[in-house]
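Lecture 7, part B: from sequences to assemblies.

Below are the input chains for today's worked example.
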Amino acid sequence: MIETVASVGLPIDEKLMIQKNRLVPANGLSGNEKRISVVTGTHGDELEGQYVCYELQRRIKENIECLTGIVDVYPAINPLGIDSITRGIPGFDLDMNRIFPGLENGSMPEYIASKIIDDLSGSAAVVDIHASNIFLEEIPQVRINELSRDTLVPLAKLLNVDYIWVHSSATVLESTLAYSLNVIGTPTLVVEMGVGMRITKKYGDQLTDGILALMKELGIWNGEVITPKEPIISEDGEVSFINAGKSGVFVPCVGHWKNVKKDGHIGDILNPLTGEINERIFAPTDGIVFTLREYPIVNEGSLIARILA
Amino acid sequence: MKEKLLFELNSVYRDNMRIKGYSFGEGEESACIVGATRGNEVQQLYICSRLINIFKQLEHQGKMKYGKSVMVIPTVNSHSMNIGKRFWSTDNTDINRMFPGYSLGETTQRIAAGVFENISSYKFGIQFTSFYMQGDYIPHVRVMQTGFEDIELAKDFGLPYVYRRNARPYDTTTLNYNWQLWETKAFSVYTSATDKIDVVSAREAINAVLSFLNKQGIIQYRCHEGFISQFIEGHSLMNVKSATAGIFIRHADVDSRVKKGDVIAEIMDPYTGETADRVIAPQNGIVFFHVNQPLIYSQTPLFRIIPTDDLV
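Predicted structure of the full complex, as structure tokens:
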């Protein structure tokens, strides 16, 4: 059943609507069912979650008799952004993931944010799917604020991701959807995978398998599920960042999610005008490349890769 | 006047971006003034360029106080200004959400770090900035509530209002917030415009800065000292929101008095031209802010009004 979570009038004959689809057991609700919410489309250039929303519902509908709880799917909480290929909220140039928990009496984005929080609140788990951005490719991973580690790591291990990154707390991140929900007791897992403006089907299938496994653990699904893969779990100190020292065109010579050796060649930043190499990039440590630059043009400082030691 | 290159970003496809500071006087780092951090902050750039011109004259006339120095940075984001983009030209990040910066981090973190290491030890910090919604304000000084803010000092600008608002999590990476953490007395000055030049409010802001610096004993400058500023807080303002979307026809300007029941705007149906909604002043007050977009969404805060009794 499609429901409208928030609706705002646009100037000319159009409504901005935040919609969700609710799937319920075939034999109706007793009132005691748990609910899982899958939310994505916060940034208009992150599309990986779109496929997951489709695929999860397809599998559930094909085996609806296995559904024992409620599944709410929110494919686009920034629908204008997705439609216009805009990362932020068009018209405001705001990052939607920096305005939570929102404000019912605030501006349009704050109002919508507050309605989304109200609607998601109380879920047994929320899976908040992101897709990096157009610049970086990410291996399927869950990112967890260290403050929520004890609650979230056991749930994240069910999601069939390759990697769980427990990162330090930063005040600025308190405006995110996940933080705002976790702080009111709604466990929320942030998934990052793939790359902006693309859909990586294998990652989508992998995560869908994991969401069904999580649903089974929560008592929302009694169908067959996979045994989730054992993720690598790490903290900030084990992650090395490689940033460009020069501007130019980055051409990698390693693959994503591949092992590298300390001082191993990661790639080069080329100068197409002079035909020279502006900078050669080497690994600062032994490890595995879990983030890799996808968009070739780099400025000084652009993130090239993250390596898990 | 000394021109100092604070930070330079090399680029393959464009000229390098150079962030320049213009300093006047010698000695204590007394006041730093920062203009545009976003690419559409043209008014902020204009004000700083006018200030640089004025400080040059004051220095020539020997009116910089002995042992005091002032630096003005007209813009930290000329690359975005040159292509008419509000945020960073490649990844759309906001430099004013990157402070105190990180010299080994991403591009805009490096820019912020390059600027901040040059300005973090000033005694006073003044930033000309803008709001995320397009609109007009009464010129005012804004301070963020951090526990280090100084309201009485803010009144020395002589602008009609000193406005304090609570710092939200996303504010913790702004220049103003980090200046305060580094013990600089920081103030944000808002004028009536952002992406256009409003000469009248620019002059008012320039006068406010000069008056402030005169009162702090940094320059010698005779001028009208402005207003006895009224202190207002964010939660005390009335928000007037639109119930309907459509074409926004505004009847009340900033700084105008409105009475309870006044029709301060109308929302016109964009197809039929009929009045879809009338926006009514909920109380007597003074218009502190209004949006200036012709097309508005429903739920948009159209006006912020300072409540008054106005029995006269």
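Note for the exam: The CA atoms of residues 147 and 169 of chain A lie 7 Å apart. Keep this in mind when comparing with the next example.
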